[in-house]
Amino acid sequence: MARVKWRRSAEWTAFLRQALGVPGGDGRLGVRVVAVNEQGRERLHYVDPADYRCSRLAAQLADEWVEYVAVTGLSASASRDYVRAVDLVCSAMDGACEEAASLSLESADLLPLLARWERTLPASYQEGSRQAGVAASCVRVLIVRREDHSERGLDESLARFARGRCLTPWGDSSERDEFSRADKRALVKAAWQEVQALEKRLADGWSLAAQGRHPDEGDWLHVPDLLWGLSRGVIEPRQIGDALPPLTAQWPDALREMVLRADGTVAKRRARRDVILRLLARLYPTNLDLHSFRVLLVDATGHASEEVTGFGAQDIEFLPKGVRLTLVKDRASRVRHRAFRDASEPRNADQGEVSASELLDGPRREVSAIVRRLLAVTEKVRERCPEVSDTLFVRPSLVYYDLRFGRWNSNMQGQRFTDWLHTAGVTVDGEAHIGRLRKSTKVEKAIVSGGRISVAADDHLEETFAGHYAQGTTLRILSGKVINTAQDHWFQQAVEGPTLISSDAVEITEDSERLQALGLDREQADGIVQGELDMGVSHCKNPWDSPFSPPGELCAVAPLRCLECRNAWLLPSHLPQLMLFAEHLETVRQRLDPKTFTRLWGQSYTNLRAAMDERTEEEKALARKHITAGEVSLDLPLAAHVEFDT
Question: Where is this region: Disordered (predicted)?
Fold first, then answer.
């Protein structure tokens, strides 16, 4: 269990802050502390070497951790990973060695213990978990960092071990699938509806506030007066809480309705706080409201959540037909300047409403329209927190009864993405994660670009697209359809052979009109009846349209490939030539190895045997008499008597 501790007392916080100024060193066994920012709030993480018997080892690792966080500016979650790793390895060393107090990074005895810890670490986690690999990697990073400073003691074998291959497997990570098209449409439609509801709520709230006055001059239980005071910052939420009667039954109906639950009851313990939150929600967007804008921006831009929530007013440049945004992706350490063009002329800023028909027929995906509306709804909040300039996603928050304005927290308890889905009335299949929406837009881009990865992977490496985004269900289905279509095409080409006229229908071959009924044009039917299209082993309905020769040129492979050609018509009169051709193929089959024969003549041989099986024994006996009498011959090109086994 990680030794990340949170204390609310001012004395404890003051102690930790004082510890930050104490000089480090192996001889100091005091608390090691770092301060990191998370959602604009300072978090204090610490490691106390005195909690472990191997206190010297814990102090050395903690010192490296403190410096590493300071130099790299690690996030709060990453810092916690290192604290957890130090706790895990030091706790394990305490239990594995009776002389744990003597262990340190200079000790050669640490190497076998550390190696055994890495090998056994995954047993403490569920199968496939990545946490064991993260912990082992963090410890190795701290050891390697110590080696980079030559003045600090470190066992050489331990240094080589730290730079070697990790003995703890990283586990498996399951890729999130993209939202289905139906789920995505529902998300975008609900987001637009929520934005419209938010804009109407704020407009009504500020209009109501304009009708009020200072509560001291008016009434502390009158909603317009309370909104007037909050909107101008002349009263504090605590004053409202103090002015409310102790019993909600004594409240005016307008205030009481704000805290009524679906079943008609009131949560009495938090009724005052809930009223204040409802009043603030009439003036400013809440943490939950901003999820709608994130959904719309991820869908419209195709960029990651951290990018679309991480640009400020100074990062926006409106163009005549769109907007240019400066997007920062911390994970990839990349800054991009992207222009997003509108599909049509952008409407006037005063014409901000999206009509019902647009919502039903297809929600707008113009980035400029979304950004303008986000600027409008957060304008009042940004005026109250000018120090937050790197994001438009700002909102008020109530810390106890203190009103604060700051950046958005997407993971705030009770106001996460899943809570927004519930509020918006949207149900999705699978995990409710905003990253799935990003993957949906990447899949669409891949489809529109015809599968060109260079286009779909325009904001990350192609390897990232192939390994992460190309595994979505939609692309797999499309890929399967393409493969099946190609296979069907070539299968049809392979099995589509000559047309066989049975002996029972021999009279058809003498009737031009009946041949036309089978799909031949008049000229082709007349040519077959008159014998003008006889190619040796079959008739050819169009020797100038051969699948084996360029269009318009005379077929160059007849009669060797006639039995593989869709233009061939096999008549009962061709049986003697077919029997001679069968003898020729049998000779070739004896001369070539099976694999080569199948590759060169397999389809012809198969079609020939199928045609021969359609003839009766009496017909075959009569055909042999014609062959013996010398009345029939088969003319084959010289190349047919030479086979190259290559």
Answer: 339-358
What's the DSSP call for residue 43?
Answer: E
- Residue 187: inside a domain, yes or no? no
Q: pLDDT by residue (tens digit) across 42-62? A: 778 889 998 999 999 999 999
Cβ density class 137-157: b for 16+ within 10 Å, e for less: bbbbbbbebbbeeeeeebbee
On whether both 455 and 471 belong to a single domain, the answer is yes
Q: Provide the mean pLDDT of the chain.
A: 80
Q: Which amino acid is at 586?
A: E
The strand pairing partners of 336, in sequence order, are: 327
How far apart, in whole angstroms, are the C-alpha atoms of residue 181 and residue 184? 5
Coil/strand/helix, residue 570:
strand
Picking from 66-80, 360-374, 430-444, 484-498, which range would have the lowest pLDDT averaged per residue? Answer: 484-498
Out of 111-120, 184-193, 259-268, 543-552, pick the least confident: 259-268
Q: In this predicted structure, what is the pLDDT of residue 1? A: 30
**Alpha carbon 229 to chain centroid distance?**
46
375-413: b (≥16 Cβ within 10 Å) or e: eebbebbbeebeebeebbbbbbbeeeeebebbbbbbeee
Number of structural domains (the chain) is 5
Please, what is the end-to-end C-alpha distance for the chain in angstroms? 67
Cβ-based neighbours of 188, under 8 Å, separated by 6 or more: 295, 296, 299, 363, 365
C-alpha torsion sign, points 228, 231, 232, 234: positive
Residue 347 confidence (pLDDT) above 50: no
- Per DSSP, the three-state class of 45 is strand
| Total length of the chain | 646
Q: Are residues 349 and 243 in the same domain?
A: no
Q: What are phi and psi of 397, to 5 degrees?
A: -140, 155
Is residue 507 assigned to a domain? yes
**Region class of 531: left (phi > 0), else alpha (psi between -120 and 50), else beta:** left
Please check whether residues 421 and 501 belong to one and the same domain: no
Name which residue leads in pLDDT, 440 or 117.
Answer: 117
The closest of 104, 136, 107 to 120, measured between CA atoms, is 136
**What is the band of 314 on the pLDDT scale with cuts at 50, 70, 90?**
very high
> Distance between CA 599 and CA 345 in Å, rounded?
60
Q: State yes or no: pLDDT of 92 exceeds 60.
A: yes
Query: Are the beta carbons of 245 and 251 closer than 8 angstroms?
Result: yes
Q: Domain range holding 388? A: 290-425
Single residue among 261, 281, 301 that ends a domain in this structure:
281
| Residue 490 pLDDT > 60 | no
How is the beta sheet containing 316-319 ordered, strand by strand? 316-319, 322-329, 334-341
